[in-house]
Amino acid sequence: MGTNIPLERIDDNRWLIPQRYNDAMRVPGMVYADDELIQTILSDNALQQVANVASLPGIVGHSLGMPDIHWGYGFPVGGVAATDAETGVVSPGGIGFDINCGVRLLATDLHYDQVKGKVAELADRLFDNLPSGVGTDGMRQLTEQEMHDVMVQGARWAVDEGYGFAEDIDMTEEQGCLEGADPSAVSKHAIQRGRKQLGSLGSGNHFCEIQMVDHIYNQEAADAMGIGRKGQIVATLHCGSRGMGHQVAEDYIKLAEAKQEDFGFHLVDRQLACLPLDSEEGQAYLGAMKCAANFAWANRQLLMHGVRQSFASVFGRKARPKDLPLVYDVCHNIAKMEEYEIDGEMKRVCVHRKGATRAFPAGHPALPEKYQAIGQPVLIPGDMGRYSFMLVGAPGSMEQSFGSCCHGAGRRMSRTAAKKAVGSKQLLEMLEKKGVTVRVHSKNLLAEEAPQAYKDAQQVVNVVHNAGLASLVVRLRPLIVVKG
DNA sequence: ATGTTC
Known about the structure:
Elements: E1 8-11, E2 14-17, E3 29-32, H1 35-42, H2 46-53, E4 59-70, E5 77-84, E6 89-90, E7 102-111, H3 112-115, H4 119-129, H5 144-153, H6 155-160, H7 166-170, H8 188-195, E8 207-216, H9 219-225, E9 232-239, H10 242-263, E10 275-276, H11 280-315, E11 326-331, E12 333-342, E13 345-354, E14 357-358, E15 377-380, E16 388-393, H12 396-400, E17 404-405, H13 415-421, H14 424-433, E18 437-440, H15 443-448, H16 457-466, E19 470-483
Helix pairs in contact: 4-11, 5-11, 8-10, 10-11
The chain binds one DNA strand through helix 10.
């Protein structure tokens, strides 16, 4: 049950898995958790996966586990691993099935008092305007040429098509587009799945939430982001690359598994299957992954347009599209080539973030001018009953975690366990009692996302705050949840 | 996460 993993306590927020735990480990593991969270983490095998990841060819630093870590395909969700650009590998399981799953947050000028009488109407509009559910078609059906352009241009394509504004691009990680996307590396099947789904929310833990600013930890940073008033209404989207990214992941996991012998890899878990960064196959995966990432950014751009339209139709001149600026968009399932100081020298590495958010500190050149002084906004959705958080990246992330921190609350119950433990009727009643208005396609699936199925996001963000990876800015309370 | 067992 993972409890035989040796853990050495470093301090109140850090636990080391020593390299001597087994012969396969090339680096130690490091897990971020407090005394209570580490007990939850020990109850599944996620720490064994942290140790497994430490055996990847070319891995440097530590195999990292964030406080929201839980069991995933090969790699844990809530994990970070960096591999040497020259001698290392990329592993599709280290990015995950939902390539560029991410979160974006829009501010509004509205206060809760202006919204409370129109909550049901707004919820209905959002539900109408944001296609959701398993296998649902999106707002746009794309020609093959349009699909090609989406994969290469990302969010920019959507803005050029009239979804949103040029300013949105600057407030998106990587300006909503990874260079080097290679459509020829994407299977026909993945392309066909994508053509139907641009501008759709999907299912599972994906959602649109309307939230209110509930607590302010850092007024200066909150003001810089335009979310510094208590009671202020904001909108959050959590979504990824839908069936398109899923197909890319599946295609390349299969390829990698078939190639392990050829590359001479004998990994401790076949789900760690990986491709050398300097191989044709490794580069093909990265080219295809970038296509899926760009698709996801265009997808969130279309969905954001749907959110702005919904507000405009309910609140008129008080919430025109221009009055709902994008605060920031982060990606939490991706591999990126970045540079870090390791053992005193600068090294180029492939950072795998799987359920982990980039958390660059103030002054980082990748940040827009607007956030140079405060650091990168880090969006951490919690669960639909309690709260979500906005943080900013802190200097410790550059020293400890390859510019990364947690991505959410993290599951404490599997989907099947949650469905067994929670009845959908009681759940809806409980949410209503808490003042959360829910619009959902499948009540059955809602139970899998019950607050009880998740760790306490407050505890999770406290750990990354105290460890110096990111710094708390505001807490948000949910008012409306729209889901598949 | 996912045309949720191609």
